Amino acid sequence: MSSNVAATVDKARSRLPRSEQLSGPQKLMILVLSMTLYGVGDIVANVVPEVQVGPLELGVSYFAFIAVVLAALLSPFWVALGAPLGELVFSDMLLGDFGGLSELEGFLQTALAIYVAGCLVRNPLNRVQVALAPVVMVLVDKVSGGIVDILKVVIGIDPESLEEADGLLGAFLLAEGLDIVVTVVFSGILFGALPALWLTPRLYGKIEPIMGLRPRDPHDPPRLTGPSGMRFWPIALLALLAAGAVALFATWEEFVGREEGLSTLGSFEPDFVDQFGEAWMWVAGAVALTVGLGLFVVVAALRARRSRDAETPAASTAEDDEASF
C-alpha cells in the first residue's frame, strides 16, 4: 500500500506548482474544514457516555485523530487555529454552553497542542510519527491544564476541587495524574493514534490537491516557528502563561462571587440540551456539518474558478507567441 500512496503523492506533487505561501482561499479552506470536522467531533464526543469506575471517569474528552490527521496533511498552523475555534463556534455555541472570555484558556492550550503534534509528523507515511502525534497533543493539552488546576488549589481559589479529594493535596495530585493517564489512553490512543494510523496514509496525496496544495514533502516538512519567523518556544511559553492567567482570573472571580465578571464577557449559556434534550446534539451536529462543508465547497469552487481564469490569459499569450513565431 505504501508504494501506491507514494506514487499518488509524487503524481500530485508533479501536477501542482511549488508555493512557499498559502493563498487566502487555501487558508480559509483549511480553517473551515478543521473547524467543521473538529467541532462536529466535539459534539459527538459529548454524546458518548462516560463510565464511572471508582473515582475515575472513563470517557472520550475529544477525538484527537481529527485534528492530528488534518495537521499532518495540511498546514499545522491553520489547523491549530481552526480546530479549537470550531469547538467554540460549532460545539459550545450551538449547544448553548459558551463561557465567554474564560474559553480563551482552552483555545490557547488546544491550538498549541495541535500545532506541536502537526509539526511532529514530518512524513505522513511514518507510522511512528503518526502514532506519537495524538499522544503528544493530549499530553501538551492536559499537562498544561493540569498545572493550572494545581495552581488554583495551591493558591486557595478552588477549594471545591480539594474537598472532592477529602482535603488532601496528595489525593488531588493523584487524581490529576490519573485523569491525564485516562485521557491519553482514550483520546490519545484509542480515539487518537489508532484511527490516525488508518486514515493518514489513505488521505495522504488525495485531500491536498482538492485545495491546490502539494502533499507534504518529508524532506521539507513544516517546522516549529513563531509569528514572523520568531523562535517557537518563547511564544509557546507566553501562550501557556496567558492561558493560565485567564483560568486563574476566571476561578478567582467565581471564588469571590462575581457572577457577571470580566471572564464571563460574551458568554452564551442558554443550555439548549437541557431545554430540548440530547436530540439537540444531533441537530447541532447536522447544522454544523452542513454549514461548514457548504462553506468549504463554495470557497473551493471560487478558488478553482480563479485558478482557471488566471490560466486562460497565460495560455492565450503562449498561443499568440507561437503563431507570431
Automatic annotation (TrEMBL):
Signal peptide: none
A Pfam family it matches: DUF8171
Domain named DUF8171: residues: 29-306
Chain segments annotated as coiled-coil in the UniProt record: none
InterPro entries: DUF8171
Transmembrane segment boundaries: 28-48, 60-86, 177-199, 232-252, 279-302
Region ranges (Disordered): 1-20
Name the record gives this protein: DUF8171 domain-containing protein
Organism this protein belongs to: Isoptericola halotolerans
